[in-house]
Amino acid sequence: MPETVSPQIQKQIAAPLTPTWNVIPTTPEGWKEQVNAGYQATMKSLPALREALKVKVEPVTLDGVKAYMVTPDTIPAKNRDRLLVHVHGGCFVSFPGESGTVEAIYMAGFGGFKVLSVDYRMPPDHPYPAGLDDAVTAWKAATKMAKPKNMAIFGSSAGGNLTLAMVLRAKQEKLPLPGAIAPGTPMSDLTGAGDSFQTNGMVDNVLVAYGANCDKRAALYTAGRDLKDPLLSPVYADLSGFPPAILTSGTRDLLLSNTVRVHRKLRQAGVEATLQVFEGQSHAQYYRDAGAPETKEAFEEIARFFDKHLGK
Amino acid sequence: MPETVSPQIQKQIAAPLTPTWNVIPTTPEGWKEQVNAGYQATMKSLPALREALKVKVEPVTLDGVKAYMVTPDTIPAKNRDRLLVHVHGGCFVSFPGESGTVEAIYMAGFGGFKVLSVDYRMPPDHPYPAGLDDAVTAWKAATKMAKPKNMAIFGSSAGGNLTLAMVLRAKQEKLPLPGAIAPGTPMSDLTGAGDSFQTNGMVDNVLVAYGANCDKRAALYTAGRDLKDPLLSPVYADLSGFPPAILTSGTRDLLLSNTVRVHRKLRQAGVEATLQVFEGQSHAQYYRDAGAPETKEAFEEIARFFDKHLGK
Asked: How far apart, in whole angstroms, are the C-alpha atoms of residue A86 and residue B304?
């Protein structure tokens, strides 16, 4: 147990492995049941989280795509004409509906930004490209609500994958690009490549190991397609022309490699890209406890990065 | 064996553990013998390295402190009035004399900078503060050779520790500060704290594990002093007012935690600080193979950072 992190993060490090890390449903109904259990648990936690972070959440629709507008009680003047778009994590299958707003609430609360959190369609009913299509549709609609240069896209895990894939699609379709992005511990390589799948296997207590539950969910999304397709594994994409990016990971993160690989690829492509790695943290533990100083630090760092790169 | 790195880095990952990683001499003579073996091996490799990187190396003396001036054959115009100061690694005991110039040769060659590499005194004959005193004396002398704002201090491992400690001493003694620093995988915490001592133990094939040979060498340097003294473990220092810093590590690095902890502390202190973490690399493997694309990438990234922050 490292003494080099806050008591809140120590508690996360001491936590047992995610109970379902290797419990693999065998039918669509089985998956829906597992996803629903997570949904119910998260929904219960949301009122206290919204109160702690002082935000309100309202359902909206963007050209037919469901989303939530997360609005902080207080918005600094410099952020009044800014808007963030959030794509949630959950290995492409979990956190439907309002249960996907958790990270958006953290960002809105700690950063003082309005955040649109996209409730994109997911497997087992809707494999790729449904979710990405929804995210791109939401992005297009959102660019009519603020200037694209005043906007950022962010999200962690599967949301980090989708953040990168949205920018790729925007490049391909010649849509406006955001002024900055924040892919957190992105599932950037679904092929299983990435050294920390080995070195942090059974060390990360969130995802635990490659090929377990999270990757089985991702397989429902990719549904037999070529996993080296850059829209599925963006680490293989041409990242030139990407907006400034800030990436976040932890030393125990199973996706540490797939975070730093994207960081290096962005830098190789000449993109302004910043990396923050938190001591002792497993996958995406930076938005688990609103009271942990590391949580505030992670989101305030992202907020400063956005403030530096977004128009007003 | 990760496919996500170059063949050259794959070869380093496949290499056996450092043969002496846990071979601990019991007498000063025993240490000197072990150090001398490393010295001889490194000296043999230097002519080819200097030729590959196109630099020349000349011994100099700076107010009584021995050093080497490393000069690239070609110096870009923008670097003519710039000067870097290098403090070598080796766990405070290894790489005396010219064998300490390896990283300086890489930096001079890939970056096109003149580099002064300090041959500071070391244990077993000279424990702390002799080495740091020499480094500070060399810094003072060097600031008469170029404008301090046109200068950077850099070094890896023990050299990363000394880089940070030199800036602390410069702050304390009100000496001019450099325009930027590059502490590579710094031995920033000699107390044994740092989560990656656990998670990357026996994964890192260079240092291998905490408490082994490298830490025994560090103990000859600290010689019974309080290891939480910020001049020995700079992660415990007040880092406010530090110059812009770029830190380098690898996902397998035993000192990954002690690199990212310094990065976070610098950011918390409001310092512009950048982190680069290389896929699959153990401790300081970014200056082992001049032909690895990752080596060029690491030093060119540091060179760009210096170019951005140093005066001309």
From this structure: 32
